[in-house]
Amino acid sequence: MFVAGFPAGAWGTNCYLVAPAAGEECVIVDPGHEAARGVEDLIREHRLKPVAVLLTHGHIDHIASVVPVCGARNVPAWIHPEDRYMMADPERALGRSLGQQLMGSITVGEPDDVRELKDGSVLELAGLELTVDHAPGHTGGSVTFRTPAAGEVPPVLFSGDLLFAGSIGRTDLPGGDSKAIMESLARVCLPLDDATVVLSGHGSQTTIGRERATNPYLRQVAGAADAPAFPRRGM
């Protein structure tokens, strides 16, 4: 599997292009603030052919470029129905005061073709198999996308703002739920193989094994008695 990514815009949100190999069809995960140019650069560099945009959740730092990216290639965007309203009304998702500070001149809205994700569904796109897991807590409609192992290639989890290297997503914005995010960590992340590569919405790459051993929140849901709490991340 081929993955190219970059941190986009003011919030450094990771945008990923995923394909079976360079020169083939791809999906685009989380084209956030000012991501359109970086997406086009990677498409040209690696001769990719986008077929869909996949959104881990609806916060503006993950979806700000969804309209131009989808429009440029005439491809659909996939999002969980509980977060779909954020495409047209991102201020509501952030709270009015924070939303007014962050929105500025960002143009928002839905692309022409929006499709809704379901928990447990398997998307077969661009020659890839991506399993959708609903993972509420950061937002009500947060999801992850995971690919199976293929030969020597380990499974990959696109975790959005559920799980980061050393931390998890914040839950203090509208729709956030501390109890729900811990339940999502237990249900979605703990069963995964330690070799699973985690590509999150912010920060560096990690693995499930590393986070199982060191992430205080994953250790907490796994029942480790000596797991301290640290600040959460994400917008």
UniProtKB/TrEMBL annotation:
Pfam families: Lactamase_B. Its cofactor is Zn(2+). SMART domains: Lactamase_B (SM00849). Residues 12-202 form the Metallo-beta-lactamase domain. Keywords: Hydrolase, Metal-binding, Zinc. It comes from the Bacteria. PANTHER family: HYDROXYACYLGLUTATHIONE HYDROLASE GLOC. This is MBL fold metallo-hydrolase. It comes from Kitasatospora cystarginea.
